[in-house]
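Help needed: design a sequence for this.
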């Protein structure tokens, strides 16, 4: 089964992640990239492209449900700019749950890699203590 990694939306903060940043998140989350690719990813699928596609998929979903997600008392806005919102989602790892349970990517541990990247992005974008909170970074378009 080949995974389509081309049909994604542009996510500015994710585009700032280098291929090495993504490989490091894979290594931290699940171990060596080659081992993950060999055992869990469909043949002929680039692991870095897969992670980028998953980040874009999650952002598309969150952007469509942005107002509903924002109004949920369980989610706190930590930072908001013209381009993105960083949420603290408490003890619920929204990125891992949504990737693992709802995304079109049936790839073991993909949600964990995406969660690792959201932690990295949130630490870079905010001064918030993420010790007991899960971050979720959502690119937004305030022009709409």
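Sure. Designed sequence:
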């Amino acid at each position: 089964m080949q995974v389509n990694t081309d049909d994604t939306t542009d996510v500015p903060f994710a585009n700032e992640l280098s291929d090495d940043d993504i490989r490091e998140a894979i290594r931290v989350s699940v171990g060596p990239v080659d081992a993950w690719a060999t055992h869990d990813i469909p043949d002929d699928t680039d692991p870095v492209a897969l992670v980028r596609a998953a980040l874009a998929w999650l952002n598309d979903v969150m952007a469509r449900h942005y107002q509903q997600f924002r109004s949920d008392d369980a989610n706190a806005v930590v930072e908001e700019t013209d381009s993105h919102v960083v949420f603290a989602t408490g003890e619920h790892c929204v990125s891992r749950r949504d990737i693992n349970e709802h995304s079109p990517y049936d790839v073991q541990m993909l949600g964990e890699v995406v969660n690792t990247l959201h932690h990295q992005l949130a630490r870079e974008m905010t001064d918030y203590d993420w010790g007991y909170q899960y971050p979720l970074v959502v690119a937004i378009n305030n022009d709409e």
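The chain has a mean pLDDT of 85.
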